[in-house]
User: Fold this.
Amino acid sequence: MIFEVFRQERKGQAFMHGGSFHAPNREFADAYAREFYARRGESVALWVVPREEIVEIDEFPDEFDLKYRRVDGYSIKARLKEARERAGTLQG
Amino acid sequence: MDPRTHDFLEFVQGGGQVETGDWMPDEYRARLIKFIEMHGNSELMGVLPERDWILRAPTLQRKLALTAKIQDEVGHCQLIYRVVEDLGKPREACLDDLISGKSKFHNVFHYPTRSWGDVGVIAWLVDAAAIISQKALLKCSYAPYARVMKKVCWEESFHILHGRDTVLAMVTGTPEQFELVQEALLRWWEPLMHFHGTPIPAEEDPMFVWRIKSQANEDARQQFLDGYVPQILELGLELPDQKLRKNEDGVWEYTEPDWDKLMAVVTGHGPASQERLAFRRLSRADVDWVSRAMLSEAA
Assistant:
């Protein structure tokens, strides 16, 4: 079985992918993960996951151009100018 | 060259990095496998010269440090073979090709270790030469390999310190201890000069063209000489090359190493090549029952 390891370097930080190894079961995976990724105190926590349990998604089509959900979907410059003109607060 | 390969080449030459599932040209994949497999082989074969000294280490502290270093190297081998496996070549096939002599391992692991002085020189200078090559792989166009290198380089830095400390203890000891280091250094100088390979220009080196390596061989050797020759000489140690000097342009000049000899060594004709391979065959047969027990556990 191949296990993928994610390691956290310091409390509060995100877990980052560290690498993978072969292990016959979870018990060995636990021991190997400690030896490979935490022997010198380089990790404060590890996530050890069987590779087949990971769902990878790497395509994100945006067929309907849903940009109203993103900041680049809004251009407020012209409207802001108009609003300031109306209010009489437009500078220079 | 087909347009897809052309685009790929442009992508990696522009600093782009590739993941396991991405499309890649067959030649790129084949070169990656060969190169990374040889790196894995070298980690595994590299523990054998040091293994010979675990029982003969002069103090308990040195024995433990050497054992820890060996554990690191075997761990590197496992991580690196995992990268090869994901590219399509199983670990068992790597081990088969290693012991049959079909694949190669690094020149420095084809030499015997005659004294404790060798252990210091290997851990200090061979690892220093290796870390220069490995740091240049942190920018490898194949991202999973570059990520593994981060951990490998970090651990190698301990090895260099362990080696330097061992050497310092000996050069500050008795005249006999000093002589052990000096004698080992004279023997190891040629393999060290061979280590980074022939001075092939980067643009002609396919490994650089595909950006598997990010540095020309000669640049790596220059970096090694620049970093370590002063550190060697300041200890009062001597090097065997009378031509070795840094010229006015800051470039190290040296006697041209015998490149045919390097080729002979890495193709299995080094002084310890066959003995090491025989030992690897023996230990593979010896621990076969462990693999079988583990696999039945996994099933």
The first strand of chain B starts at residue 245 and ends at 246.
